[in-house]
Every structure is written in structure tokens, then in C-alpha cells.
Amino acid sequence: MTTLTAMRFRISMSALTLMLALVFLVLPAVVAARAEVRIQEVKSDRGITAWLVEDYSVPIIAIKFLFDGGSTQDPVGKEGLANLMTGLFDEGAGDLDSDAFQTRLDEAGAEMGFNESNDAVGGGMRMLADRQDEAFELLKLAVEKPRFDQAPIDRIRSQIVSGIVANARDPEAQAARKWAKAVYGDHPYARPDQGTETSLATITADDLRAFHKANFTRQNIHVAVVGAIDAETLKKRLDQVFGGLPEKADLRVVERVEPKLRQTMHMEYPLPQTSLQLIYPGVPREAPDFLAAALMEHILGGGTFSSRLFDEVREKRGLAYSVSSALINQEHASSLIIGTATRSDRAVETLGVIREVIRKMAEEGPTEAELDAAKKYMLGAYAINNLDSSGAIASTLVDLQTDELGIDYMQRRVELINAVTLEQVKAAARKLLSVEPAVMILGPKFAETSKG
User: Fold this and answer.
1) Burial of 447 (0-12, 13-18, 19+ CB in 10 A)
2) pLDDT given for residue 8 in this prediction
3) CB-based burial of residue 172 (10 Å sphere; 0-12 exposed, 13-18 middle, 19+ buried)?
4) pLDDT band at 12 (very low <50, low <70, confident <90, very high)
5) CB–CB of 424/293 below 8 Å?
6) Residue 237 and residue 48: Cα distance in Å, rounded?
7) How far is residue 407 CA from its own chain's centroid?
8) Where in the chain are the domains?
9) What stretches of 33-80 show up as alpha helix (H) in DSSP?
């Protein structure tokens, strides 16, 4: 349910950037060969903490960071503020206007991008180790002194509005917006993070500066760095880039919200396929039964070709090309979501099959064999999905920080997963799947199209 803005990269075509591309082809194999990732905690003189993985196999440094807050901090009536801001960090900073900044970024052979979610504004940079002086200085300017000049504001705002206008003609985008409102009511999660034409028109440069000052601080930042840099050097770089930011954040309090279940919303639209989405309760990441719920969800629909839903919906009946589930964890809400798309004349049948698979999982739970297979997958796929590049490792480290799992989580993870029992997984299934879900249907009327 979280809407993520695509990260905007500007890539130089210089020889340095070609080198950057080549070394990143090598890096996944290097990382996969490691027995473990050695993480150091580095704290700067100004109190900024980062997790560091030193790696000198290629001359690259990757930095990722998040500032808590995100689009939930958009003032009412100015929705889209955080999203607009993320499009402006490479459009001029310090004494450099947009063209000058982007030229310097290309000359440094660095890649920089920013994005936002409901709960955070994130950024990152990849650079050549021998050009880090120039790269870190540009990152400092972008993070600490964005210009928010009027011409780039108008240009980026126009691009966002074009996307909003296009989405207004997209039934799936419109359904997602109405669905968020139905599930989250008046909570900030129900608001469009891109904003609206009306809200974007009200946003000024002063609004951007105020949002930046309140949200970009030393108090609410999480940083991870991977690559050819040592701890002592990183300490200085942390203060160089982030040390000039305000000490304290000024964030609005956002309450936790439970998705509104036990409702069905059918958006009638003449489509050849009907989209189905079911929302069940989720489990917060910090909950003691999270891993049991994650294993159950994998068996139910998260294992793609091996899941129960895939077997019953696609393999046995050919009702859909794909069907999947996911545990969605945001800072202030958790849910388990199941989704698929099927021929409109078989939508009722497909929904019935999904409900029956869920009922059986809730009542009986998985088998020991299914649990063993799920554990093997979760243990084996972690490195492939999370540690296959310096950027992926840095992102994973930031996630571990925001989830407050501890710097030793990678070492403890195997033991934690193997310790989950079949009874715990069955209990998670009963807890999450025994309630009536929220159901969203996008497609023609059932009565006119369905055979079931």
C-alpha cells in the first residue's frame, strides 16, 4: 500500500561512469562469495551513527540514508510536498544552479537519487573511491543546502501533474486511491503521496524549505555505507555531509491505524480481466510472532511457484497467471495482502478458490514438510535478495536500523528462523486468517460475467 516514488538517477556517459557500470557487474559475485557480512557501527563527533561494511574488492562506495517522516508529514492541503521535494535535490544546491550541479555530478562520476514513502524520505549515492572528495561535497550540498529555485519547482511539479492526469484515466490507479481511503479512512496513509493538481499548486519554495528543515535532521536519520572506505574516514564524511543539519526533528505525531476489514468494494469497469485484492490483519515487525507469520505467508502465497495459492489457482485450475501474498509493514500499520487478476467471467470462481485456500490454512495450518521447505527458502534466498550488491547491502542495513533488529541480526537470523515451531505457524495462521477480510474488486459486475 505504500506508494514509492521512482528514484531519479542521472548517469554520466564519461569513462569514469562506464567504469562504475563495469565494477557493479563484478560486485554481486564478490558479495555472494562472502561467508558473512561484517558490520561496524561508526559514530561521528556530531553524534551521527552509521553502519559500515568495508569492501575493497572494487573501488566503489555506496551510501544509503533515510530520514523518518515521509509523506505522512505533508500538511493537510499540501499533499505531495515530500514527493515534490525529492525531485529537487539534484536541481541546484549551495552556489550551484541546476545545470551546474548536474554537470559537477557527472564530472565526479557519481550517481545520486532520492525517494519518499509514507514513512521516510530516503537518498543514496554511489561513487568512485578516488573521487569521493567531490562526490561527498555534492551530497553535502544536496542534503544540507538544496536551493528550491522556482524554475525547477515549476518543471518538476509539471511532470508530477502530468502523471496525476494520466492516472486519472487509469482505472487501477483510481481504484487504488479509493481503496486506500476505504481501508485507512482519514489517516495520512489514505492520502495520495503524489498529491493532487490542487494541492501541488499551493506548494511554495518556503513550504519546501520548512519541510526540509523539520524533516532533515541529525535526530531522525539512519545511515549505511558499503565499500572502499574505513571507519575513521567515514566518521569525518558523516559530519561533512550531515553534521550541518539541525539537531532535532519537528515531526507531527502519526497514530497507528488498523486497516478497516469486513468490507467489499466493487469498482465496476469494463475490463477483460478482473483484479482481486484481499486484506487481512498483519503483524508488526517487532512482534514476537512475526517470523511465524512470515513463514506462514510464504507457504500461503509468498513462495510464487511453490505456494498453496499458486498451486490451487494457477496450476490446478488455470484461473490466473499469477497470485501472491505479502506481509506489508509500515511504521503505523501492518497488513497481509493477497492479490491476483483473472478473466472476468471466472472472477467469482477465483475468489471462491482463494477463500477456500485461506480457510483451510486458518483451520489446519501448514504441514511440517511445507514449513521445512519455507525455512530453507527464507534462509537461502536472503543473500540473493538482500546482499547481491553494495547498494542492496546498504539498503538492507538501513532497513535493519529502522526495524530496530540490531546490528547482529544477520548472525542471529538463522537461529531465529529455525526456532519457529509448527504450532507457532499454525497459531499465526489462525490469528491472521480467521477474520473476514476487506475485498476490492475491479472489473465488470459479477452477475453479468461470472460462470461461478
Assistant:
1) exposed
2) 37
3) middle
4) very low
5) no
6) 10
7) 20
8) 15-242, 263-449
9) none
Q: What is the pLDDT of residue 303?
A: 73
Q: What is the mean pLDDT of the chain?
A: 92
> Residues, the chain, total?
452
Residue 436's SS3 state is coil
40-43 and 334-343 as β-strands: parallel, antiparallel, unpaired? unpaired
The grid coordinates listed for 29 are: 559475485
Distance of CA 441 to the CA centre of its chain: 25
Question: What CA dihedral angle connects 422, 423, 424 and 427, to 10 degrees?
Answer: 130
Q: Which amino acid is at 439?
A: V
- The total of other beta-carbon atoms located within 10 Å of residue 421's CB is 11
Instruction: Give residues with Cβ within 8 angstroms of 432, minimum separation 6.
Output: 280, 281, 282, 283, 293, 296, 336, 362
Per CATH, 15-242 and 263-449 having the same topology is answered: yes
> Band of the pLDDT at 304, cuts 50, 70, 90?
confident
Is there a contact between 82 and 70 (Cβ–Cβ < 8 Å)? Answer: yes
For 127-186, the pLDDT digits (tens) are 999 999 999 999 999 999 999 999 999 999 999 999 999 999 999 999 999 999 999 999
Interhelix angle for 150-168 vs 171-184, to 10°? 100
Range with lowest mean pLDDT among 21-30, 55-64, 105-114, 399-408: 21-30
SS3 317: coil
Predicted pLDDT of residue 31: 40
Core vs surface per residue 239-261: b (16+ CB within 10 A) or e: bbbbbebeeebebeebeebebeb
Distance between CA 381 and CA 373 in Å, rounded? 12
Task: Please state the separation of Cα 292 from the chain's center in Å.
Answer: 22
The residue behind cell 562472502 is 34
Indicate whether this model's pTM tops 0.85.
yes
Match 546482499 to its residue by C-alpha cell.
387
Domain 15-242 belongs to what topology? Cytochrome Bc1 Complex; Chain A, domain 1 (3.30.830)
Q: Where are the beta strands (DSSP E) in 288-419?
A: 320-329, 334-343
The CATH T-level fold of domain 263-449 is Cytochrome Bc1 Complex; Chain A, domain 1 (3.30.830)
Helix (H, G, I), strand (E, B) or coil at 27: helix
CB-based contacts of 244, cutoff 8 Å, min separation 6: 140, 144
Average pLDDT over residues 41-67: 98
pLDDT (tens digit per residue) in 378-426: 999 999 999 999 999 999 999 999 999 999 999 999 999 999 999 999 9
What confidence tens digit (pLDDT) does each residue in 438-448 have? 999 999 988 54
